[in-house]
Known about the structure:
Order of helices and strands of chain A: HEHEHEHEHEH
Largest sheet of chain B: 5 strands, mixed
Number of helices of chain A: 6
Helix content of chain A: 40-55%
Largest interface: A-B, 23 and 28 residues
Distance between the termini of chain A: 29 Å
Oligomer: heterodimer
Number of strands of chain A: 5
Number of strands of chain B: 7
Shape of chain B: elongated
Structural class of chain B: alpha+beta
Radius of gyration of chain A: 14 Å
Structural class of chain A: alpha/beta
Shape of chain A: globular
Order of helices and strands of chain B: HHHHHHHHEHEEHEEHHEEH
Amino acid sequence: MTPADAAKPKILVVDDDHANLRTFRIVFRAEYDAVLALSGDEALDALAAGAIDVALVDYAMPDMNGLQLLARIQRAHPDVGRIMVTGYPDLPELSAATESGLAAAVVMKPWDRDALMRTIDEQVRLARSGAPASGGSDAA
Amino acid sequence: MSAPEPATLDFAAGWEASSLKRERSEATTAVLFTGVLVPLWIAFDAFLEPELLHTFTVMRLVATAAAWGVLPIIRRAGTVRALRAWTTAEIALSGATIALMLPHVRHFPAYVFGFSLYFWGMGAVLSWPARWSVGLFTWLLGVMSAGFVAWPGMRSPADYVAVGFYVGSAAVVATIMNYIRYRMVREAFAVSHQLAMRNADVERTLEQLREAQARLVASEKLSALGRLLAGLSHEINNPLNVLQNNLDPLRTSLDGLLDLARLAGSATPSDLPALRRRCAELGVEATARDAEDAAEMMRAAMGRVRQVHSDLRAFIRGDAPGMVLEDPSGGLRATAALLARRLPDGVRVEMDVGPLPRTTFQPGQLNQVWHNLIQNALDAVGHAGTVSVRARAVADRIEVTVADTGPGVAPEHQARLFEPFFTTKGLGKGTGLGLAMSYQIVERHGGAMFLDGGYTGGARFVIRLPVRVVPGAAPLADPAARAG
Lengths: 140, 484
């Protein structure tokens, strides 16, 4: 592993749609080390394996939806940055999630590469400084 | 009594219009009465009082002409006041011609009787305020008295007393009759006016209710559509994400590979090490894999968008108000396909919908019914269960059933299931109009809809539609053909 690789932020991407996961990996191949998970359970396993900076979680997933997963991440891994991604416009639950600090940001699909990168970088910076944007800061 | 103009709700204006109509016909009768009676009287005189004929004939011919002359005027009078004025003037004139004859006639009782007929006749025919009767009758009695004064000594005092008493009481009775009829007519008008007002109130309330109902129906359609579209926007935004975000990496990969290809095209054997170095930098294999990967994902994404679009089109194309003569299974399948996207893992939608006989129906409305029933079934099963949609032809009917493995409909709710505003979904989740509207739509199609009471595995709704051909219902153009 080169020093450059070690410095690359490790982003956990959770989406039940495989195409979205692959797209993320292709788009941010140079910038991030993407860990992909197709469900909430896979995501929790990956988090348990450790060293994740930021989790990028899709809202609409069968079984465990994005909000439920974020709540569990908040409890079990408060130092991991939490970003919600969704294809649903105007879902009241999502604005509530940002207000309560469950998600540091909500990103609409289709996302814009540069905007998403800014959001992720901000969360990486906060996670690495030991102070996630909001919500989980009590555990930091 | 004439009914008030229904459009006139202002009391005074309504009363004026109603009075004008009624009094015009009364005045016509009264004036005709004099116009016919006075010339008859001339003939009567020729027989009874030939020596007086010449003196009074001119006067009464003038009165007759006046009666017929006034007739067209009262037919056209624009206000009640003008009508009354002309009528009074005409009767006053013709009555005066008889009053002035009284002192001279030999057959006094017959003429007094004839004169009193004027009073009785006007009393029977007219209905107007007492002041007009008092005015008219006072004038006639005055003319009569003036005649007696102008030609004194023609009658015995007993005659004066008798005629005064007889004609005077006729005048009083006629005035009372006019007044009583006027009061009755006015009261009847007031009652009917009040009724008309109340009717207008009821009509307004009904209109407001109809508007409210239309708004509710529209809001139910909108909320169902909104829910569907929210789900679909997710279905579209995911492939859109893949399409949008793979475009730049694909382009970058292609640019890198094309640069390399151009270099290779003009390369000499000595350039080979440099080319190999560029290949290693680019990571040709990985780049090619990414490009293929991206292209493949974009193609799949396109397919998904196209499928959503085609289902949505089949679902909403029937929103035109017209009826079509078609196989209704297409709309049923498209609606189920729209709703069956991205279900929780434990939920399955089973479709057993074969070709059905062609029948006349309104596709937008039936799609609304299918949408409603299937969405309800999906709501009922929640995170795990099966929704079965079946359609088949039974004899001359089409039978569609939507069954779910949810908790079923509680017995106490079954009777109210199709009532408007009845919902068990909780505040903000359901308008309570879905099933009520579906029921109406099916009824309008000549069909029936009910909850299968014998089904115990959850809830099963049955819709039976008649196979019928209503003339004038043209088949819609094939949406695929129109898509171009």
